[in-house]
Amino acid sequence: MPPAEQLMTVARDDQRGCLVVVVQGEVDLGTGGRLMEATAEALQQAAGRPVVLDLSAVGFVSSSGLGQLVALHEEGQRTGTPVRVVVDRSGPAMRPIRTMGLDGVLSLFDTLDEALTA
User: Fold this and answer.
1) Radius of gyration for the chain, computed over Cα atoms and rounded to the nearest angstrom
2) What superfamily in CATH does domain 4-117 come from?
3) What pLDDT digit, counting tens, does each position of 57-103 carry?
4) Sign of the C-alpha dihedral, residues 18, 60, 38, 8?
5) Cβ contacts of 26 within 8 Å, gap of 6 or more
6) % helix / strand / coil in the chain, to the nearest 5?
7) Is 24 exposed, middle or buried (0-12, 13-18, 19+ CB in 10 A)?
8) Which helix (H) or strand (E) covers residue 86, if one does?
């Protein structure tokens, strides 16, 4: 099995007053630790600014990945940091989000631009 670094990449950037975390690849039990580390760090550094999690290039999200999205959402609510999730609504990452009813919980956006200007 390839190392987590080959299955998922995470990059951070500051854009238009938001901290953007761009994820590519697969979000599952093997890669989730890196995602949680990156998002927890972003929440700490955001200081109330929105955190945008861009999943538009994610091809797979497992149940553990969904749990991490919910945990990120809840932590954002607890700290007063808006968390916005960019996901292709016709892509593979959206199916488990919709199946678990998280499309009614998470703040979802179709494009990074929409999430940045919300």
Assistant:
1) 13
2) STAS domain (3.30.750.24)
3) 999 999 989 999 999 999 999 999 999 999 999 999 999 999 999 99
4) negative
5) 7, 8, 58, 59, 60, 61, 62
6) 45, 30, 25
7) middle
8) strand 83-86
Residue with tokens 């995470």: 10
Unique residue bearing structure tokens 């890669």: 31
How many other CB atoms are there within 10 angstroms of residue 75's CB atom? 16
Six-digit token string for 18: 């938001």
Q: What is the pTM of this model?
A: 0.91
Specify the DSSP class assigned to residue 102. Answer: G
- Torsion sign (Cα): 51, 88, 5, 11: negative
Among the residues of 20-62, which ranges form H helices? 32-46
Beginning with the edge strand found earlier in the chain, give each strand of the sheet holding 8-15 in spatial order: 8-15, 18-27, 51-61, 83-86, 107-109
